[in-house]
């Protein structure tokens, strides 16, 4: 019975999150309210409050859902039989595609209004640590397979992650296309592979 209750609650949360995703995209973060989100699914505002503390809490759940749906594709890369160099290339491009989609979503819902920086920072920190782990996993595989020559995998993972973070800036601050970003990624990977590949 307890498991059924939890499942029902999770289902109701998902209904609200899906509705909120559409409302944020349609009206923007500022104009979308918990009341309007509740009304869109035939519920009152207090119903939404039962599952989420406030609008920021719901927005965080929306972003979590968007990210996790895309991140599931990362696992396909990490668990594949591809060489580490190919994994790193595919992971990097998939990651930047994710960032590109999130940048567009943030732009759409913000409507020029700055979303609470502490919230966006919280969301960013939430995923940074996991990203470094993914990169480390790929680099470690490359070292063990003799593809890469890296003395300090931890440092290399953090360094590569930092470079990727730098590539995010044009996506959030300009109208640069994903095609242009992909060209930058190809150049970046060429430089990195020339430095870490075993001779």
UniProtKB/TrEMBL annotation:
DNA-binding region: 33-52
Keyword DNA-binding on entry: yes
InterPro entries, A to Z: Homeodomain-like_sf, HTH-type_TetR-like_transc_reg, HTH_TetR, Tet_transcr_reg_TetR-rel_C_sf
GO molecular function: DNA binding
Keyword entries, A-Z: DNA-binding
Signal peptide: none
Domain HTH tetR-type: 10-70
Official protein name in the record: AcrR family transcriptional regulator
């Amino acid at each position: 019975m307890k498991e059924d209750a939890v499942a029902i609650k999770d289902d109701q949360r998902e209904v609200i999150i899906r509705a909120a995703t559409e409302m944020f995209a349609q009206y923007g973060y500022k104009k979308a309210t918990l009341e309007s989100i509740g009304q869109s699914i035939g519920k009152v505002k207090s119903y939404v409050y039962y599952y989420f503390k406030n609008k920021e809490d719901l927005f965080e759940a929306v972003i979590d859902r968007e990210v996790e749906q895309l991140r599931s594709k990362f696992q396909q890369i990490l668990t594949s039989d591809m060489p580490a160099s190919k994994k790193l290339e595919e992971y990097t491009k998939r990651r930047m595609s994710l960032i590109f989609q999130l940048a567009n979503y943030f732009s759409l819902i913000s409507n020029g209004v700055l979303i609470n920086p502490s919230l966006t920072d919280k969301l960013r920190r939430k995923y940074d640590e996991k990203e470094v782990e993914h990169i480390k996993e790929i680099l470690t595989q490359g070292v063990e397979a003799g593809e890469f020559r890296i003395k300090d995998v931890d440092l290399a993972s953090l360094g590569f992650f930092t470079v990727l973070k730098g590539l995010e800036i044009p996506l959030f601050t300009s109208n640069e296309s994903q095609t242009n970003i992909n060209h930058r990624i190809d150049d970046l990977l060429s430089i990195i592979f020339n430095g870490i590949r075993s001779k």
